[in-house]
Design goal:
This protein has 752 residues and is mostly beta strands. It is built from 6 helices and 48 strands. The radius of gyration is 35 Å and the shape is globular. It holds the Pfam family TIG.
């Protein structure tokens, strides 16, 4: 009997421990809240109501669950949350999803107690948040829908990164913004004729990255008139800007030009809906002054901003993209000269295709479901990407489309009621021509290309890449070595041609000694090495087998050998190196042996006006005839040199951090990151350890393979040999820092 009783007690305890039981400190407040809002029984565990409440264990050993998220939906009737929610200490998300649930102002008296709170979403807002409210540092996003009361300053003076205000109601207005807030990154604000708009947001939100302006422009027809958004100051960090116009049936017009003049640096602008208008006094929306991280993009959707243009009325910065949906503007409104990409869908304005004769940068056009008629111009054959399907084109197609025939060409221009082209059209290409002269010497690393020119060559194919569609294509050549090779290529029109080529001969430039996981390697840098198999290298007359090459691409390749397999060399003694790859011999180079060359600076900061600078390190020799220094391939004058310090005169350059200094001592090459800043006194170099070669054992690579630049910047294509006349092989073209990292990664993978 005792055994049965004991087992029964154990089973009851076990079952209780296995149940999902809410933390007692949270049960009362949650039970009361769910009962009042939804009639949920107070005897039930609130954590079992996954529709509204998400719970989790407080920690791995706890038998109680804590409320993590509240997603409160439609209550039985309009409800104001007056319960003290502060016991929900682990709350991360608070979402009141519908517009008949309200927070009382008392909530903001203790909101700072939610130390894990990430997001607040209010479907309704009818009480101003007190100005002395302190939000938790964890809070990242605050969303308010349907505000019907003034916004307080507290939300705008917090550390919240993202603030979104949507769908304003009568009674909504903005506070006066006073204090600078460097934390806000994403801001969405509504604007009406009555609410006004903060005129100093660019000065208050100094690090604002994305701004949405939602214009509610039909709030009261009795007081209908046009209005404007004035903003004082310049947005210095803005990357994205959205204008969205709502209630456009009787839309007030908003002059957008004056606002955009305060946005000198931006990546993306989006305009939706009716209402945006170019200021007549400006005449043209000239955005060519804008700078972007990459290519600038403008997108308009259901907008009339370009509809009433008389002639050209918008100009872009170089290398821009333009997207349009559901508009009705003339293509004459667009200045195409700086566009790279043009997309227009559902344009209701009847017209011919745009003239692209004065659009040298344009690479892609996508026009579909629009009222475009007439011919497809021959000039469209030069576009690398083209899609003109589902329009009303009723003229002729150019020769490049006829070459493809109805099956392939139809993917570009059908369906359209064209006069001379349909799905059954046979390929017809009488003007197909390949010019006799083409590059036939290619790199060994797999990046080599045969560049051909001609007429009606097509767009792409197996191993074909368009440079200029139909007139200049690249044929990709795989990794390999040797001479007298050939490749067969089938063009889009069915033509089969054979192209002959040879791989560049090996060319040795520099060497280095690196350490990886405590193992030392002797590396040789250059071009024309074998990336598939081992490389035969001769050092002082002794033939040695090196591993297959690594790196390549826009940089030189690297081959390596275990250091212990290197012939014995005396310090500062000279030795000769040559290579035989694919039956082709390299240059023979004389190097001088040093166990280590080291620069102690981690980074060099130079003036853009040029000047003189000292560089510290261990340089292996006092023989200045063995020393050369260059920055991105431009030689520097070495004015002083000892075994531990060298002084150089360096050239002027543009401000930036995309520079590499290369030190070559007797063929041993190391690199140093260089940054150019505005002129002044020459800055003192950093003395933290560099990533140049070291003889100290390490569990991580102590060097990145490096080379020395040639005496002049190379303008030779990557597929051509990089040797310059008179080059003795002891120097090389500059490598990027990214190449060092990639090379080390590849080396690590090969050796593990």
């Amino acid at each position: 009997m005792k055994i049965i009783l004991t087992l029964s007690i154990f089973l009851i305890c076990f079952l209780q421990l296995g149940q999902s039981i809410i933390d007692p400190s949270q049960k009362d407040v949650m039970s009361d809240l769910l009962f009042n809002m939804y009639g949920y029984s107070k005897g039930l565990d609130p954590c079992d109501n996954s529709a509204y409440v998400i719970c989790d264990y407080i920690n791995s050993t706890s038998t109680f669950k804590t409320v993590k998220e509240l997603h409160l939906g439609t209550p039985l009737q309009e409800y104001v949350i007056t319960q003290d929610l502060s016991p929900l200490q682990n709350l991360t998300y608070l979402q009141l999803n519908y517009n008949n649930i309200y927070l009382s102002s008392s909530f903001f008296n203790y909101v700072n107690k939610f130390s894990q709170l990430l997001r607040i979403y209010l479907g309704s807002y009818n009480e101003t948040i007190p100005d002395d409210t302190i939000f938790p540092a964890s809070l990242e996003s605050f969303l308010i829908y349907n505000p019907s009361a003034p916004l307080g300053r507290a939300i705008f003076e917090s550390t919240i990164k993202n603030i979104f205000i949507y769908s304003p109601l009568t009674g909504f207005s903005y506070p006066t913004l006073i204090n600078v807030n460097p934390y806000l990154e994403y801001l969405a604000l509504p604007v009406t004729f009555y609410s006004g708009f903060p005129s100093n947001i660019s000065r208050v939100f100094t690090n604002l990255n994305k701004l949405e302006i939602r214009v509610f422009n039909d709030m009261n027809e009795n007081n209908y008139k046009n209005f404007s958004i004035s903003n004082i100051g310049v947005f210095k960090n803005l990357k994205g800007l959205d204008f969205e116009f709502n209630d456009g049936d009787n839309s007030q017009e908003l002059y957008i030009h004056s606002f955009l003049s305060n946005v000198p640096f931006i990546n993306y602008i989006y305009i939706y809906g009716l209402g945006a208008t170019i200021d007549p006094s400006a005449g043209i929306l000239d955005l060519s002054y804008i700078k972007a991280d990459n290519n600038f993009e403008l997108e308009i959707d259901s907008s009339s901003i370009l509809n009433n243009c008389k002639g050209t009325c918008i100009k872009f910065p170089k290398y821009s993209s333009f997207n349009s949906y559901y508009c009705a503007f003339s293509y004459n409104a667009i200045d195409f000269s700086n566009l790279v990409y043009f997309k227009d869908l559902y344009n209701e304005h009847e017209q011919n295709l745009p003239n692209i004769d004065n659009a040298p940068l344009l690479d892609e056009i996508y026009i579909s479901y629009s009222v475009v008629v007439g011919d497809i111009p021959e000039s469209y054959c030069r576009l690398n990407k083209l899609n003109l399907r589902n329009n009303e084109l009723d003229g002729t197609v150019p020769s490049c489309i006829q070459c493809l025939g109805g099956v392939k060409g139809g993917d570009i221009v059908l369906p359209n009621p064209l006069l001379n082209f349909n799905k059954t059209s046979e390929p017809y290409c009488p003007n197909f021509k390949i010019d006799q002269n083409y590059t036939n010497l290619v790199a060994t690393d797999g990046t080599g290309k045969i560049i051909i020119t001609g007429t009606n060559l097509g767009w792409d194919g197996n191993g074909l890449t368009p440079i200029i569609a139909n007139s200049k294509l690249a044929i990709t050549i795989p990794k390999g070595v040797g001479t007298n090779k050939s490749i067969n290529v089938t063009f889009q029109n069915g033509e089969l041609r054979t192209f002959n080529y040879s791989y560049i001969p090996p060319f040795i430039k520099s060497y280095a000694i690196i350490e990886l996981f405590g193992q030392k390697y002797f590396t040789i840098n250059g071009t024309g090495f074998d990336f598939n198999d081992s490389n035969n290298i001769t050092i002082n007359g002794q033939q040695i087998t090196f591993f297959n090459a690594l790196g390549g691409g826009d940089n030189d390749g690297m081959i390596e050998l275990y250091f212990i397999e290197l012939p014995n060399l005396a310090t500062e003694s000279n030795f000769t190196v040559s290579a035989l790859v694919g039956g082709q011999s390299s240059n023979e180079v004389t190097f001088y042996y040093f166990n280590s060359i080291n620069i102690t600076e981690e980074k060099l900061v130079l003036n853009n006006t040029g000047g003189s600078v000292d560089i510290n390190g261990l340089f292996g020799t006092n023989n200045t005839s063995l020393v050369s220094v260059s920055i991105n391939g431009i030689n520097c004058l070495v004015t002083s040199y000892t075994n531990s310090k060298l002084t150089i005169q360096y050239p002027s350059n543009q401000v930036g951090d995309n520079y590499v200094l290369t030190l070559n001592v007797g063929g041993y090459a190391v690199n140093l990151v260089v940054e150019y800043i505005e002129g002044g006194e020459t800055p003192t170099p950093s003395t933290t350890p560099s990533t140049t070669p070291s003889t100290t054992p390490s569990t991580t690579p102590s060097i990145t393979p490096s080379t020395t630049p040639s005496t002049t910047p190379s303008t030779t294509p990557s597929s051509a040999p990089t040797q310059s006349p008179g080059d003795d092989g002891s120097t090389s073209s500059t490598l990027s820092i990214s190449f060092y990292l990639i090379t080390l990664l590849l080396l690590t993978q090969q050796l593990i």
